[in-house]
Design goal:
alpha+beta, four-stranded antiparallel sheet, 6 helices, 35% helix, binds adenosine-5'-diphosphate, binds magnesium ion
Length: 147
Amino acid sequence: DDSMERTLILLKPDCVQRRLMGRVLARFEDKGLNIIAMKMMRVTPDLAKKHYAEHVKKDWYPALEGFITGGPIVAAVVEEMLGATSGLKAAPGTVRGDFSSSRQMNLVHGSDGPEAAQREIALYFLDEEICANEPAISLWLRAADEG
Ligand code: ADP
Ligand code: MG
């Protein structure tokens, strides 16, 4: 279903090193997001510059690049199964709020909106790596007339 919003999620190097991958992914699953692609990988300096193009000129960019390229990350594409009115937007913030006490090491990246998501997903995934699927439980998450 093309109307479902997709987002790129990155579990950053601090998230992997702190063994928080499972707990953070569980939060997205619990919230009703559908994971349709996922891989562990390293971010290269070149990819970091593309991803964070808006920040490359900032004085703290070198620190950010060192951080994001400093260890493996997990990139995932998640698809919204519940509407925005269900409070979905707050979910990624609570991961940072509950687990992170750093401005830089904030565990997760989530795309800002649909346009950013489309651009960022293409940086990390080939079309054939997206495993779109309709979970059988969808029928029990939202009534048919809720759109
Ligand atoms: P967000 O990830 O919430 O969109 P920004 O786009 O402002 O945040 O910044 C991108 C990432 O750069 C942040 O998630 C964080 O890891 C890092 N960062 C932000 N501000 C700083 C800073 N002043 N010094 C170092 N790293 C920073
Ligand atoms: Mg940003």
